[in-house]
Design a protein that fits this description.
binds 5,10-Methenyltetrahydrofolate; alpha/beta; 2 domains; 11 helices; binds magnesium ion; about 45% helix; single chain; Rossmann fold
């Protein structure tokens, strides 16, 4: 059996186009474009590439990209000051502070300084709490992108058994909350789980987000399961995910590739969140079901 390869790149392009299609109405209503501020501290090459890609995608969607590049000697106080100014700037709807920050910076303090209604990463504890309690907020981009990919395979997610591999605040935990919101039966396995593969083997849906190349072997996947690979690991042989793709694609029913799977959805969802934040701040109504796709 050979799995359906979930084309994240194409699905992300469609989402970006649906977001871009809403921008003229926002401009007409408000006299301005939605604005996304991205803050990059230091010289990390991979981060610089992501930030450049985000800026290009933002402009292509008709939004304003405001980029702040700061030296790796930037202090927590300086970052808090910048975040305060972005919070107060009416032209800024979304604020993304690229992680990881230099070790000397208090990352949590910076995240908590962002106005939750401009927190397009969905990392602020207020947005984590809103997600956990069923309130409208801003949802982390990568897990949201995974849900949108899953809906292309499973128009009805309710009742499916989902296993999330990893429990980070950025992916694993919000992923579990989103799957729960879709009425999946959710299990989270992590580094202290006694037999992670035994749980994964039961899953209709596997979301792998541990950051270990090839951590999930084909033998751990139930035949026909849908596998979403969040891992982006740089190895000698190039970018690889957390799933043994070659072998798993012979067992799974559907699987995301790396690259070309979840990564492009993260950026598309960032634009989607920026539009959502802008519309909420301005009191402009949006049809989210249409933006997120027909099955939403
Ligand atoms: N505050 C914050 N928010 C983030 O969302 C955030 C962050 N910090 N720090 C870094 C990670 C990483 N990240 C990616 C986004 C897109 C791709 C992506 O588009 N990947 C492509 C190609 C990647 C490549 O070729 O390097 C793909 O998977 O096909 C990957 C990774 C967002 N992050
Ligand atoms: Mg873990």
């Amino acid at each position: 059996m050979s799995a359906t390869i979930i084309n994240g790149k194409a699905i992300a392009a469609e989402l970006r186009a649906r977001v871009a299609a809403q921008v003229p109405a926002f401009r007409d209503a408000t006299g301005r474009a939605p604005g996304l501020a991205v803050v990059l501290v230091g010289e990390d090459a991979a981060s610089a590439v992501y930030v450049r890609n985000k800026g290009r995608a933002t402009r292509e969607a008709g939004m304003e990209s405001i980029e702040h590049r700061l030296p790796d000697t930037t202090t927590t106080a300086e970052l808090l000051d910048l975040v305060g100014r972005l919070n107060a700037d009416p032209a800024v709807d979304g604020i993304l502070v690229q992680l990881p920050l230099p070790a000397a910076v208090d990352t949590q303090a910076v995240i908590e300084a962002i106005d939750p209604d401009k927190d397009v990463d969905g990392f602020h504890p207020v947005n984590a709490g809103r997600l956990a309690t069923g309130l409208d907020g801003l949802v982390p981009c990568t897990p949201l992108g995974c849900i949108l990919l899953l809906r292309t395979i499973h128009p009805h997610l309710a009742g499916l058994e989902a296993v999330v591999v990893g429990r980070s605040n950025i992916v694993g935990k919000p992923m579990a909350q989103l799957l729960l919101r879709e009425s999946c039966t959710v299990t989270v396995v992590h580094s202290r789980t006694r037999d992670a593969f035994a749980h994964i083997r039961q899953a209709d849906i596997v979301v792998a987000a541990v950051g270990i190349p090839g951590f999930v072997p084909a033998a751990a996947i139930k035949p026909g399961a849908t596998v979403i690979d969040v891992g982006i690991n740089r190895t000698d042989t190039g970018l690889v995910g957390d799933v043994d793709f070659a072998a798993a694609s012979e067992v799974a029913g559907a699987i995301t590739p790396v690259p070309g799977g979840v990564g492009p959805m993260t950026i598309a969802c960032l634009l989607r969140n920026t539009l959502v934040a802008a519309a909420r701040r301005e009191g402009v109504s949006l049809d989210l079901a249409t933006i997120d796709g027909a099955a939403a």
